[in-house]
Amino acid sequence: MRDGDFAPRVASALAAAFLFAIFVVVLVQVFFRYVLGRPLMWTEEAARYLYIWTCYLGTAVAFRRGVHIRIGVVVDRLSPPARRVAELVGLTCTAVYLAVFLAQATELARLSHGTLAITFPLPWSAIYGAAVVSCLLMLWFTVDAIQRALRGPSGRR
Amino acid sequence: MTVGTFLGLWLLLVALGLPLFVTLGLASLASLWAQGDVLLALPQRVTAAANSFTLLAAPFFMLAGLAMNTSGVTNRIYAFAESLVGWLRGGLAHVNVVGSVIFAGMSGSAVADAVGLGAIEIKAMTDEGYEREFAAAVTAASATIGPIIPPSVPMLVYAVTADASIGRLFLGGVVPGLLMAAALMLQLAWMSRRRGYPRRPFPRLHVVAARGWAALPSLLTPAILLGGMLAGAFTPTEAGVVAAAYALLLGLVIHRELRLRDLPRLFQETVEANGVILILVMTSSLFAFVLARAQVPQVLAGWLVGLSTNPTVVLLAINVFLLLVGCLLEALAAIVILVPVLLPAVKLLGIDPVHFGVVMVLNLMIGTLTPPVGIVLFVVSRVAQLPFEVVVRSTAPFLVPLVAVLLAITLWPDLVLFLPRLVLGP
Asked: Is A70 in Cβ contact with B17 (below 8 Å)?
């Protein structure tokens, strides 16, 4: 990660904490059902929502680190100027997708605010919030990458 | 927007080198927008795909593999495998395969195998005078056994997408996984003889016993995982969490090579690896939704059934199609997108979904060894510090035994279905 990259660090730590929370919640679920014979109602649902957050945050962290799976063979064969154009077009397409996704996720979170989870009083806006936060981060990283690509000669990180 | 335009647009975005998940999402977005649909489906579908208690076993299968790589378990597995088959001609190449089989019983992903065990194996093999590209090729080929022998992330994703039994799929992978190992070792025996590779001295029995004893706690992991699941004590997710807890306990308490302060990094690595594959699974389910809206599954089912009413012929045709798809699409994305497309035809022809699942996963694992999208090849070329093209070329001969096993399990469904029927009943 780049120096001073505060947001991805926080996102990574938060996602790891959520995964750890799932780990504990599922162990508690096993313990209560298997050992105490008193199954808990809320554990499965809690684990699922924590997982949604884990996935979205992990995606954003991986996005910043540039480790998402992509096919570079075509672009890598281009001449440096052509590659630069392809990179800028690609980044712009990515920004468009993330912007639309962000707008829709925000709207969905707003609409679902009144709907509560089944076994505990958590509004669904808090769950769709994961998509909002993740898109916001990735959009920010993309805009940053566009700026660097415009500035730098080859635009390579 | 026609299906042709939709797929063409998607391929264009892929060629531009965008992250695969963005290409899948953007093509779906364009299709929905052209249809004048409500775009709220975008975040809703994508989020819903991750809202699954079964799927959240995936990061724990990965965590178990990562934990073993950092806690010295991998070294013990390697040492044990070395004492078992190191004395064969081309010994360390055979060790590579056997090590992968043992590791497969604890980890659910080919990448974890290639990274952890692979690094040890490639170093040991080159130190003993094997060509680096040969060592890399054996590592890559044997890493594909990982997701065939349970636990397995791709089988988990298949089970969720096809609504099939995870226990049956896991058990169904055992025999094909062992067959893959046998086929690879056969090929290695032939190559070793021709190239005159060295062999190691036959180990003394007490060395085998001592190394087996050191590896025993790790060897128990599959027993806990599968035993707990099949006895009905745990759901697959709970089994995954318990197995991960066991792997952490091994490293922290028994082997004492993992420290508590390593845990945050371990969880962060898992979260990132999980993020990479889950966003693909999530966005692929949106892509699958768009294909379903365009009636692609129905059309394809009609076409496949029209091709032949013989299930074997259709299955062979699907295999050829999947091998081509596997070159271009990441395995988990292919599962999420193609299971809804292919399953109606498969069921119509009376093919068992468990049989189909194991065939599909094995097929797509071969796809991780073929360019341009060969995830395992990428990882191995990084670990072995060899150019991607070199690893592609040196791995190619090993596609032969793997495709032979694929053909065998396609033609004889009992190779897959025997074990689940034996354990879980028909």
From this structure: yes
